[in-house]
Amino acid sequence: MLSRRAFSTALLTTLAAPLVSRAAAQTASDMGSLAGELPQLHAIMVQRGEDIVLAEAFRGPGLDRVANIKSCSKSIVALLAGSAISQGAIAGVDATLGAVAPSIIPSDATPGAADLTIEDLVTLRAGLEGTSGGNYGAWVNSGNWVAFALRRPMVAAPGGRMIYSTGTTHILGAALAVATGDSLLEQARAVLGRPLGIEIPAWTRDPQGFYFGGNEMALTPRAMLRIAVLLRDGGRFEGRQVVSTDWMRASVRPRTRSPWSGLDYGYGWFLSESGFIIARGYGGQIIAAHPERDLAVAITSDPNAPARSDGHFGRLMELLEGPLLAAP
């Protein structure tokens, strides 16, 4: 197993190489070798332009079987929110929860819950106490996940700082289901599944029947890569505009910043300084795109092991920002 120091040394050596030798060193084989030394990593796929330059499954279920993408689900829900707005089911990002889906708001919701906007929810700036971390167990064991999340106290002003909370995205998902009349599964299949030619299996639902709005979706690495290509190409896939250009442009404008990773955050997507647009899921699940470098990436990892910014996720970012970004 490659140590973090050795891994970093390998990256620095590669990046410090002269331009001519760098092109030779940074082959798909070299990138695959570095990726394979990450013990939590299961599979990686990299597409540059129209060419898949790396497709390796080192461990785990492989490239053609589904993996739990964990919180990458949040980014998928964000795309569905954009579609609902484009189709007129929701007036816009300024529409309030009380206007979009009043039926999901409990009578004892925290004051101000009805005034939360779609933008507050999709950027994780609802101000509500989070349901992730230490509150996660109590939340998913409650009898009504949406009501539980909307009863959390306001610990920040809505539209202010980012509070990472799966409950916030679940509220958004439930609102989308009410506003469109279609479940998140139906929306995901219509908006992404059929246009991209990918399978989207059913996933976990809450006690009221709402599909989990921020976790537990499952996709194959190949399907994840197609979503990365969609993201890279501004919402287009194989010549068709699948997600509106306006929503894609709005999605990659920084709205807040993660207090954990330091990455900027737009409409459901993390944004790196180098230009990567990233969906991130627990354990090291990644859907990433770099439009300027014509690059799309899908990564799956052990879904049961943590991947902190100073651990496995940090090493994945080194891989993205180092050899993958620099490769010709």
Automatic annotation (TrEMBL):
The keyword Signal applies. Residues 1-23 form the signal peptide. Coiled coil: none annotated. Residues 43-308 form the Beta-lactamase-related domain. Keywords: Signal. This is Beta-lactamase. The lineage of its organism: Bacteria, Pseudomonadati, Pseudomonadota, Alphaproteobacteria, Rhodobacterales.
